[in-house]
Amino acid sequence: MNYKEHKQILLTLYITILMMTVTIFTFGQTTINPDTVCANATGEQYFVTNTPTSTYNWTITGGGILQTGQTTNAITVDWGGVMGLWVNAVEVIESNAAGCPGAPILLDVFVLALSGNGIGPFCPGDPTTTLVGNPIGGTWSGTGVVSNAFQPTSAGIGNYVLTYSLAGCNTTINVVVNGGPITGPIQHF
Amino acid sequence: MKRLLLILCLFFSLTVSSQCVSNQSVWLNPVGPYVVGQVVTVNYTLGTFTQLNLNWIIAFQINLGAGWTNLQPLITPSNPGGSVGFWMWDTQNTFPSGLNFGPGWRFINTGTANWGTGSIGPFVMRFRVTVAPTCTPNSLSISMNVIGDCLTGGWNNGTCCTDPAYNIYNGVVQIPPIITTNINHY
Question: Can you list the positions of beta strands (E) in chain A?
Fold first, then answer.
């Protein structure tokens, strides 16, 4: 197995985890580790069960910035744009009324940044072009998109925004299908 | 003959072990274990103080583990049939023998300085202690030393009393575990 294949397997593994996360998102809160967030996501809410007499000290790393809620059981975080798995990116230490700290509770965070290949401009009769998203494993949608490929013919002339989605994150690309020249009838001088 | 042997046995028993203290009892309210901030009342009674070599009782020293704070006297020891004087609450005192005392009660003999009281008891006293704020299970031991005036240098007539400290309570501060749930993401 060469380096490229190894990297591909790791990426597939991450995608599987991301999909599991998305499934849990669908049914409510998640405690799965690692957590997944979209690059540059804002206002992401994290919490632990509240003990009214306790205080909570949160620490955020991995490009995130704690926005609200320090010392309480619930916070909001704005995440950065650097993709990767950030180990122990969210940490909380609960202290009881006597000021005694408990054990740190940790959560790894995978920051997911999506990108798509630029394609076009097209002419109406151009052949179907495969859409490529990174990381792989996501889904393309939009006018003229069929099976993760763009069909200029079915889209027709116009400007389109195509969306690539993976694990609850989205990114878009713009695609143009230009009209052909309008040629008049052949005339005989 | 039996009677003589019994008296001799009693004499050697007292002489060899030098025990002056007997019939001690105690109750605590509430009973342990204890958590931070809890206030505990200790009622201690010394039934009899045997005046070995005419040692007279002169002090009750309270020994507290590191987990306690705010020791307060509530009921001063009684002095039934004792010498002229009074029991004084003191946090620290160095007796003529150099014995470092405190905290507890010590008898001030207003007739003869540095003598204890001629009372043999019973002595009843009460004090209150509080569990100090802490994050570690500090010791909450409580014991009582009964001290005769032979040890303090007020009287010298042979062997002094060598009674061990009376154990009142053994335990540590109960620290409730802090259980934090996993971090959830909405």
Answer: 35-38, 44-47, 55-60, 65-68, 74-78, 84-95, 105-112, 115-116, 129-130, 133-134, 139-141, 149-150, 158-166, 169-177
Question: Which range, of A16-25, A114-123, B2-11, B129-138, averages the lowest pLDDT?
Answer: B2-11
pLDDT digits (tens, 9 = 90+) for A60-119: 999 999 999 999 999 999 999 999 999 999 999 999 988 999 999 999 999 999 999 999
Q: What is the ipTM of this complex?
A: 0.75
Extract the tokens encoding A58: 């949160």
CA B183 to chain centre: 50
Range of the domain at B158: 21-169
Domain count across chain B: 1
Q: Which of A44, A98, A106 sits opposite B185 (nearest CB)?
A: A44
Distance separating alpha carbons of residues B16 and B55, to the nearest angstrom: 15
CB of B184 within 8 Å of a chain A CB? The answer is yes
Residue B70 maps to a domain = yes
**Is the residue at B128 inside a domain?**
yes
Closest-CA residue of B relative to A100 is B135
Pick the closest to residue B20 from B122, B157, B120, B169 (CA basis). B120
Chain A residues interacting with chain B (CB cutoff of 8 angstroms): 29-31, 35, 37, 44-49, 54, 90, 92-96, 98-103, 105-107
In a domain? residue B15: no
Which CATH number does the domain housing residue B129 bear? 2.60.40
Closest chain A residue to B136, measured at CA: A100
Res B125 pLDDT > 80: yes
Contacts of B185 in chain A (CB under 8 A): 29-31, 35, 37, 44-46, 107
pLDDT tens-digit series, residues B61-87: 999 999 999 999 999 999 999 999 999
In the predicted model, what is the mean pLDDT of residues B146-165? 92
Specify whether the CB–CB gap between B168 and B46 falls below 8 A: no
Q: How far is A176 from chain B (nearest CA, A)?
A: 38
Asked if residue B21 has pLDDT above 70, the reply is yes
Specify if B10 maps to a domain.
no
